[in-house]
Input
Amino acid sequence: MADRQSILNELENSVKTLDQGAAVEGAKKAVAAGVSPVEAIDALSRGIREVGEKFAKKEMFVVELIYAASIMEEAIKLLEPELKKSKEKRHSTANFVLGTVAGDIHDIGKNLVKIMLEAGGFEVHDIGKDAQTETFVSKSKEVGAGIVGASSLMTTTVDVQKKIVDALRSAGVKAPLMVGGAAVSEEWAKEIGAHYCADAGTAAELAKHLIGKGA
Amino acid sequence: MATEPMKIGHFGMKRFEVMEPKSAEAIHVNSLYLLEKMGIKVVSDEGRRLLKEAGADVDEKTKIAKIPKYLVEESMRRCPHSFKMAARNPKNDFVLDGRHCYTCTDGVGLATIDLETGERRGSTLKDVADSAKIVDYLPMMHMYNPLVTPLEVPKHAHTVHEFKASLENCEKHYTTGSTYQKEEAVYELKMAAAVVGGEKELKKRPIISSIACTTSPMVLGMTTDAAIEFSRAGCPPLLMAMPLIGATAPMTVAGATLLGNAQVIALATVLQLAAPGSPLCYSTEPMAMDVQTGLFEGLFPAADMVRAAHVQMAKYYKIPIFVGGWGTCSKVPDVQAGYEKAFSAFLCYLSGADMTSGPGLLENWTVLSFEQLIIDHEMFTMMADMLKGFPVDDDSMPLDVIMEVGHEGHFMGKKHTLDHFRQMWQPMVTDGQPYKTWKTQGSKSAVDHAKEKAKEILKTHKPEPLAADIDRDLARLVAEAEKNIPH
Output
């Protein structure tokens, strides 16, 4: 049986080298060998972090980044039952509630942000696209969100971001709100009391900067 | 992807034709008529001797040769349809086969827009060396013709100085655009032979070709003697027609096409008599008159239509064609330069041109801009990406992947996407940043990016140096040429 360290290395490398077969195989081995699922997920995270860094430096392409994330997702699916059994907690910088606002179904950018946040160590709670304002609020309360993120591609849905800020604050959620998407500007973000995220590449950095700063 | 061929028509794309087939036939028939009835003035003694021996009616007083139809047609049949353009470094060799397209720089400017100061100044030998180095670096530039004439070297021997600087800085195929005298040709061929290891080897590996300009209307000038030298050495001459529409050619697209075609096939006849079966290319660089001012411009739509018509004529004779295109009247790399160049080059390639030249030059091929060279290369990579067409098969129409993604999903994380994304065009200097990032990074235009890229290439790119003994031979030949080329 392969030893713990070599399994962890295999998991990390499978993401770096975009090898889905190796990721699934590595996850199976981890389960069979009783490797801590948290350690296994951390190894995968190290892999995606490196891919994310290379993407930011334009050494890797967006397609590769997304594929790496999908590989990681496949491997995590196999590790999740073990995680539940062990009652260990995944290491995370903070809980991040992320969604595309109500009335808007454009979620490619939001998905990219999710990958970059996960690579940056956040536990992302993705509430999907066309997500109702109430869902932003309820999910944030449920997970104790450290940050909330709302994406809008269309000018017709930008106003919803203002509604989200108001709803969060009146529900007593103090987590800062990050807003982004093609229809959003820095001025708009300031006006509604949110923080502007220009692109996926800078999302994790901005989120880390905002942690613990309050609204 | 250094010299990855661009496969026009490979995936079913049809070639664009500006004339009906019967019109191309009419251009040919009328060209034969002009050559037989009116004749063409042949300045070269050797050219007239060859034509006379083969049965042409030559008047030594007027130097006009009336060439019988059969002689022209027989000569055109002798021209090879496909051949190799060798390069200093064999990895840069390419084959002209009528299905692939390539790009060359053009000559010969007299001024350069300085990369540091942005000011226009006289051209130097360093400009030749620098632009050769950039062409060596750019993956989709396939051949180098000195973009400028250095003003500081002896004028009568400038071509050999240019060739030496080019050989030292570029490992790709070399074309000379300003070889007018036989003696220049002799020395260029000696230099090329020194690089490849002798005359015999040069015939197998022609690393040099030469533009041979005919003179409109209906003259084969002194360049004919130089072209004969190239043909006999097995290095392809590019037989260029340069009709000035409305001045040295009729004021119509068809008239200029006809006149240029007659001159090209007349020169081809002379060269096939000098060296039967030797490789040569059809070539054209027409210009049109600004009817308001009388100035001549390389770009006007009529001139580009003559280019496309000549491409069709080269296809009619089944010989490769080298088109002088990418013209612009603009004095700086700007929007005008962009649209004039894009129309000109794309029309030629859509028509099936094997090679075009002109990247890097402004103001009717007289001014070198390093930024424009990089931008024109970028334009060619975009054109090549479209010209290669696309496959339609099970792999390119992935039914299973489409069904797996389902409704409202996306394809970004799919293996099929990962397997195919590297085939997509990628920019070198085209700016695709969103406004905020663009603003933060200095609000740079494509020209700014191209300037940075040119500087980076000149700083970091190191072409393989020539062997010391070859370099010594070249220096000796240049010194000898300076003494022996008439001036």
User: Anything to note?
Assistant: The interface with chain A takes residues 408, 410, 412-415, 417-418, 421, 434, 436-437 of chain B (CB under 8 Å). Chain B is about 45% helix and 15% strand.
